[in-house]
Amino acid sequence: MLLDMPEVNSLLDELRKEFEATDLSRLYQAYLDRFNSVTEWKFSSGDYYAPIPYESERMGFSPDAPVKKKYKSVDEARWQGKYSAGFVDGLHVITVLPSQRTVKALHATLYDEVGSVLEVRTVAFKWIGKPEKMQSQVRSVGRVISRPDNTRLHVGVGIGGAFAVSLYQYSDEGRPIRARAMSKGYPGEAAWEYRYTPDGQLHEITTGGPVPLWKRKRG
């Protein structure tokens, strides 16, 4: 079980403390600093650049994909339902999530990568443009650790005591092979495997049963 791993429990305790200790008074400025540091924006139909691979497929949706269209601004992209991933010298540092134009709010995920560790924070802001009303919130904090045995450990905590843990096994070529995960509110652990075509394309995601979670359409 993932919760039997001492490393996991230590990380959960550490992340819970970090979550509670976040200085909300400086959060929006931290977001702006990160946003303004971006040197290249890439747009996609889903959270294509997130560190968890093939998550849309696993949930039964169409694959996320980059969007070739160049938007005038991140606001234009997010108002049209697109994800905006920001890069600094090729390093992914932020993703701004889609939102409605009529709603004065935004959600974003901030990434900080140091060596084999990726720090992840999802933040939200309401009443953008109205300083007297604006509210800042940290929705989750997490950590992705790349380990020497070709595994990546994802641990995150969020609002209301929520938490999630997953462990991904990768091939020597860098493709995810199998994973297991658990989260608050769900009994036991889920497990699945990734299967590929001879040329390396994802063919299906399966739990070992007769019906796969996702399968590539023919043609």
Regions with little confidence, pLDDT below 50 for 5+ residues: none
Strand order of the largest sheet: 1-2-3-4-5-6-7-8-9-10-11-12
Number of domains: 1
- Give the class from helix and strand content and strand pairing: alpha+beta
| DSSP helical segment count | 4
Please provide a brief summary of the model:
By secondary structure, the protein is an alpha+beta fold. The protein has helices spanning 6-20, 27-37, 55-58, 74-79, and strands at 40-44, 83-88, 91-96, 105-114, 117-126, 135-146, 151-158, 163-170, 176-183, 190-196, 202-206, 214-215. Strand 11 (202-206) and strand 12 (214-215) form a beta hairpin.
How would you characterize the overall build of this protein?
With 219 residues, this protein is of the alpha+beta class. The protein has 4 helices and 12 strands. The chain has a 12-stranded antiparallel β-sheet. It is globular and about 55 Å long. It starts with 5 loop residues before the first helix and ends with a strand.
List keywords for this structure.
219 residues; alpha+beta; twelve-stranded antiparallel β-sheet; 12 strands; globular
